[in-house]
User: What shape does this take?
Amino acid sequence: MRTDIRPLQGALRTALPELQLTEDAPLSACTTLRLGGPADLLAEPSDEASLGRLLREAASFGVPVTVIGRGSNLLVRDGGIRGLVIRVASAMRDLSVNGETLSAEAGASLAETAALAQRSGLAGLAFASGIPGAVGGGTVMNAGAYGGELKDAITAVEGLRMDGTPFRYAGDEMGFGYRHSRLQDEGGIVTRVSFRLAPGDPKTIAAEMNELNERRRAKQPLDVPSAGSTFKRPEGHFAGALIEQCGLKGYAVGGARVSEKHAGFLVSTGGSAADFEALMDHVARVVLEETGIRLEPEIRILGEAPQ
Ligand SMILES: Cc1cc2nc3c(=O)[nH]c(=O)nc-3n(C[C@H](O)[C@H](O)[C@H](O)COP(=O)(O)OP(=O)(O)OC[C@H]3O[C@@H](n4cnc5c(N)ncnc54)[C@H](O)[C@@H]3O)c2cc1C
Assistant: This one.
């Protein structure tokens, strides 16, 4: 059922007149899969103070809050998300370097963060330059590629709990694991992340970034909407290889399809989120039946089916 967001909306218009607020905002425009129904209310705060106020107001009106970043690891269901969706990606993108420490606001893209590190002669984030997420989403997911993971460089994570109170964790308190961090279990919104990097030659780092991005372009279906690898890598296996081995390359449900280029990527050619979820279920069921291996989703599924 649609949450009544009008009292919150009214309070926010008075308390935060500058805040960008959109009612019934189509979330398909905020995800790389280009799927998903509307958010009752979408807010894009420009700084931590307005984010804090936003959270406190939402809590006082009992409106549920969901946070998203660049939407590159998300399947939003066709009915959309009830309550308030906070997008930390279009603003809160400040980046700075001090010695070997790079400080990034959560809305900065991983690409621009890796590019600043490269220009500053700091090695350790080249692997992240082709990951299409933001620093906040990447930290929560412990994004990684080509042998690197964000956890290797993160020294501190700051943010706000859903009631607006601040938190700060050192990197080794974040409970990082494969595509996992404690924030997936306890919630909270990342606002700033500190990375400890190592001195490096900018030309060598640029060459590494180019080579990794070339490998990405050669192997991944980057020209079709996706959320990257749909499933986590099962211990000792590759999800894409298992899916291919089961003869599922090219298999489609409505507009959702197993990529011909990389079977680990389920892509959307314009159907619905329901098609996509049905394809995920089918692929996981066939792989379990044929190999005995259970595929777990890497992508995060949010929202509800249409009522
Ligand atoms: C073509 C393609 C290639 C990809 N390649 C890789 C890859 O090589 N390696 C990899 O790890 N991933 C990859 N991904 C997946 C994705 O880019 C990463 O998981 C990325 O880190 C997600 O960041 P995001 O900002 O898009 O987060 P979203 O997808 O918006 O959100 C992901 C999760 O984080 C939460 N979240 C987002 N922002 C915040 C915040 N500020 N505070 C608290 N919680 C937050 C959301 O609630 C959600 O649970 C790929 C995706 C695509 C489309």
About this structure: The chain has a mean pLDDT of 97. Helices lie at 6-15, 48-60, 110-119, 135-141, 183-186, 202-219, 239-245, 273-291. DSSP finds eight helices and 19 strands in the chain.
